[in-house]
Design brief:
Layout (H helix, E strand, L loop, with lengths): L1 E2 L4 E3 L8 E7 L7 E8 L11 E2 L11 E3 L4 E5 L9 E8 L11 E7 L2 E8 L9 E10 L2 E11 L3 H7 L30 E3 L5 E4 L8 E10 L3 E3 L11 E10 L4 E4 L7 E2 L6 E4 L12 E5 L6 E12 L4 H4 L2 E5 L6 E4 L9 E10 L2 E11 L2 H7 L13
Parallel strand pairs: 1-10, 13-24
Antiparallel strand pairs: 2-12, 3-7, 3-9, 4-5, 4-8, 6-7, 8-11, 9-10, 11-12, 14-26, 15-16, 15-21, 15-23, 17-18, 17-22, 19-20, 20-21, 22-25, 23-24, 25-26
Length: 391
């Protein structure tokens, strides 16, 4: 079912009763966009700060809303408390730009059996707004419904939090190596991100509970005609095929690589406890490429070197504007931007992840080399390499 801006439909009328997902395909172009879902009471205010699901808080306390990946929400209506009357999905620009730059985008409601409803939207419907209230899933007379609101909002994500009655945590200073002792977590919604600016900058993430949970590495870049691929950008591309991968060293000294080249996709639940989810060669994937690291097995690692390499196309790292985002549960996202370029080289070591006394230490590398063997020698891995290809 194609729904129009302002249209409202009962979920039951499109065959949805319990579990479903909202999948966003965003033609973000030069924009970096954060997606969020606000759980609201009858007054259309946050039930409490824990019911904002976003990059720093990936699930609601009830488990009824989860952020799966950068642009996908999973819903289970049977878990939503009666005090929640509406759930609003929003988009907010991180950095410069306005929603008018948004290309042809789509929000799909997907349930068992496939897509049940689809809403198309683009920047031509907006002007100087920096945020967007996109969809609302709400309860009326005991019946769940979907509304394609697509209402522009002048502020950013912080203004949305305030609009919905949430409280903002105090901003924290960026880490300076060596990192200071962590301060107690502030109350309220923490919108902070950590950016490792210079080569050698590092941050240490302390273990929370029994482990670090699922650690996600995602690559975003611009390819060819100026269209983004990866973390929040999708779209056709005729430029380079930029691949994400890693070298790993286990605590017993065994070493290897996880990458699409050679079909070495790894495993999350078994050694090496690293899994590469797919290989996006066309730029049309709505989820991009991800490395998933089993942080609950961090004690079995010594180090992981995350890298990107150009499988096809001419090296132009400046045009690619690559950014890797590393996230772990209950930790601020860590961003590593490749803002120093060497177009003579086809490969770049992006970040080193190390087990330091049970904590996860992330160091920006931004080191360019010609190929895998040179990267291996640069960081003393000692693997044997041979020519390979992707199926």
């Amino acid at each position: 079912m194609q729904i129009a801006r302002g249209q409202r439909v009962k979920l039951a009328d499109i065959g949805v009763s319990g579990a479903f997902s909202i999948e966003l395909a965003l033609a973000a172009g030069p924009l970096t966009i954060d997606v969020s879902c606000f759980g609201l009471n009858a007054a259309r205010k946050l039930l409490n700060d824990d019911y904002m699901v976003f990059f720093n808080q990936k699930a609601s306390p009830c488990g009824g809303v989860k952020l799966n990946g950068p642009a996908s929400f999973a819903f289970d209506l049977s878990r939503i408390p009666t005090a929640i009357e509406a759930m609003t999905i929003t988009l907010a620009i991180d950095g410069n730009g306005t929603m008018s730059s948004l290309g042809d985008s789509r929000a799909n409601l997907v349930a068992e059996g496939g897509t049940r409803a689809s809403f198309a939207f683009s920047g031509k419907d907006f002007a100087a707004e920096r945020a967007l209230m996109l969809l609302e899933i709400y309860r009326k007379d005991g019946v769940w419904r979907l509304s394609a609101t697509a209402q522009g909002f002048n502020g950013g994500l912080d203004a949305l939090v305030t609009h919905f009655g949430g409280t903002l945590a105090a901003a924290s200073a960026p880490p300076v190596p060596p990192p200071p002792a962590p301060a107690p977590a502030p109350s309220g919604v923490n919108l902070s991100k950590v950016t490792l600016e210079k080569r050698g900058d590092k941050i240490s993430l302390e273990k929370r509970g029994s482990g670090h949970g699922r650690i996600v590495c995602n690559l975003k870049w611009t390819s060819g005609g100026g269209k983004k691929r990866g973390f929040f950008g999708f779209g056709q591309s005729k430029g380079i095929d930029l691949d994400l991968g890693c070298l790993f060293e286990l605590s017993d000294g065994r070493k290897g690589a996880v990458q699409a080249l050679g079909n070495s996709f790894g495993s999350y639940d078994h050694e090496p406890f690293i899994h590469l989810a797919g290989d996006d060669r066309t730029g049309t994937s709505a989820s991009g490429e991800f490395l998933y690291i089993n942080g609950d097995r961090l004690q079995q690692f010594r180090r992981i070197c995350v890298y990107a390499f150009i499988y096809e196309g001419v090296a132009n790292w400046g045009e690619a504007d690559a950014l890797v985002t590393i996230t772990a549960p209950n930790q601020p996202p860590v961003e590593v931007r490749l803002d120093v370029h060497n177009n003579q080289m086809n490969m770049c070591g992006i970040a080193m992840l190390e087990n330091v006394n049970g904590n996860l230490q992330i160091t920006k590398l931004a080191e360019y080399v010609g190929n895998h063997l040179e990267l291996d020698h640069r960081y003393n891995w000692g693997l044997r390499w041979q020519a390979g290809s992707k199926d």
